[in-house]
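Lecture notes, unit on protein representations.

Consider one protein chain, 195 amino acids long.
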Amino acid sequence: MDKEQKLENLHKKWIQECECDLKKVATQAVPGFGSATAQIMFIGEAPGKKEDELGRPFVGAAGKFLDEMLSTINLKRDDIYITNIVKYRPPNNRDPLPEEKSACRQWLLDELKIISPALIIFLGRHAMNNFFPDLQISNAHGKLLIKPFKGMSTKYFLPLYHPAAALYDGSMREILILDFKKIPKILKEIEKRES
């Protein structure tokens, strides 16, 4: 069974079994999407209104901005895998609660196991704090973090500001674009370390 098929089966399984309370208020689950053999996996926090309607991650304004940034480093949506720590939309786009993150955590870890990317990029503090609870995004953004986690093959992480935040704050937009441009160099560095 190839990785695509494994992911499809995984999403079917978790759509049935996930016990997240947001299931009751969301339109549908928004599983991760993209290349099952991606070198880079982006993790955001939770689906928004557009994502909830379409069942795909990062399809609203923040997703369009993400696509623009990907093109600046010669990548397309098809080259990456993108998901969220929570797979259902919180009401009124509020922050996901700890119990909601916890209910969706195994689903995320299972996605990670199948894809086994070289680099995980956190989009925003919620995604980063899911793995690095003590870090602040204002200090960690744009810096490569290296930490092995039990049961995970990936040990390279890059926190970035969330594209949605950059849409509302011009100065953050510039920072995010600069941080984004570091990605190809960071991938080369990882390749060197791993060869």
